[in-house]
Amino acid sequence: MTSSRIDRASSDDLMSLASDRGSAPMQVGAVLMLDVGRGFEPERLVHAIEQRLPAIPRLRQRLERVPVGFGRPIWVDDAGFRIADHVSIVRCPSPAGPASVLDVAAGLITTRLPRDRPLWRASLVTDVVGGGAALVIVYHHVLADGIGGLAVLAALAGAPAVDPLFPRSRPTRRELALGAARDRLRAVTRLPSALARLAQAALQLGPALRTRPQRSSLNRPTGRRRRFATVTCELDRVRETAHGHHATVNDVVLSAITGALHRLLAERDEPAETIVVSVPFSSRGSTAASRLGNASGVIPLRLPATGDPDERLEAVALITRAAKLSAPGASTAMLGPGFRLLARAGLFRRFIDRQRLIQTFVSNLKGPQDRLAIDGRPVVAVIPLSVAVGNVTVSFSVLSYCGTLTISLAADPDACPDLDRLRQLLERELNDVTRRSVAGVAPDRRRPVG
């Protein structure tokens, strides 16, 4: 074994660990739809994945706690790593269409990952209708955020790699103690910037703490089960709509989601003028597969849900532009310590099961626009996966890939039994706002932006 530097979990990573107290685990992932053609050998693809793991160190590392006073948990190489412990081959259940693949994904993402091994797993789903296959990948949020997940995807689609130093030895107690002391000294020198970040966090979270959304069925107790549904749209249509309103693709999606939730609540006889959405903002635009972890924070935004679609979109754009003026990811300076304190006191589960600060989560990632392939098998579509915890009954994950925008809806089927209806409403809202702009109903009154 070769010794290496100490690789610690960051303070942002620790927030993901503290948040993992809900009925569903704090896990995220993606479904990669593959064009495998004839003569597909699943075992060969699994071997190809194994060959690319050296480029993604986290996928062969365990997260280990250290004694009190020795610093944050550390990532250590798993000398006993076996690909068979992480990747399985399963036949797609009947009727073997996209919905069946999503059912497999729902089962995988809601099954807690064992903490004594690297925090990820995957299922290669074969015999999908049309002669395709799907690779469902799930990992604990402490391993990577969405930006890190894109880096993992790029590495899997890259060339085989070699790491001659694997496995590295675990740091000694002396090394841990010295490292922890150095970290404390650095923390003192960074105190002014930490206080400034805390002030930014207060500005970002203040509005949500001062005013609460009206009670609705969007917040009710949830269990472990989840269902997924998807809505897709041509990315160019959404981008053209955004540019015509001095907005972003994310603004268009947020406006469509709040409109769809308003219509769903109206059908439940629960009128709602606004929806409070928790939106992540990353402090980095990209990262490498060798540098994963978390570097983002969330900002609760009270967004309009009614009125003319064009006016609603422009109102959403104004709100998100104002939110972007603060430091990205700053909210973790307040949420991280608060969540860890609640977790140590055994109160975090109670808090998230009863909170009335946010009504849904919406994450959005800009994925690769050139088609990827794993071992020569084209990735024809990517479906993002995440699940909300606590009393949030439905959440949304958005990803653009190869000219297509995909929105995945995740819901507790017992707390939100009308997921299919919500999918229809979201599809209608998205089509309405993009059709109006493309048809020229909404004039281009502002300078287009990228």
Automatic annotation (TrEMBL):
InterPro entries: CAT-like_dom_sf, O-acyltransferase_WSD1-like, O-acyltransferase_WSD1_C, O-acyltransferase_WSD1_N. Belongs to the long-chain O-acyltransferase family. The keyword ATP-binding does not apply. Residues 293-432 form the O-acyltransferase WSD1 C-terminal domain. Keywords: Acyltransferase, Glycerol metabolism, Lipid biosynthesis, Lipid metabolism, Transferase. It catalyses: an acyl-CoA + a 1,2-diacyl-sn-glycerol = a triacyl-sn-glycerol + CoA. GO terms for molecular function: diacylglycerol O-acyltransferase activity. One of its GO terms (biological process) is triglyceride biosynthetic process. Pfam families: WS_DGAT_C (PF06974), WS_DGAT_cat (PF03007). The lineage of its organism: Bacteria, Bacillati, Actinomycetota, Actinomycetes, Micrococcales. Pathway: Lipid metabolism; Glycerolipid metabolism; triacylglycerol biosynthesis. This is diacylglycerol O-acyltransferase. It is an enzyme of class 2 (transferase). The keyword ATP-binding does not apply. Residues 12-253 form the O-acyltransferase WSD1-like N-terminal domain. One of its GO terms (cellular component) is plasma membrane. Its EC number is 2.3.1.20.
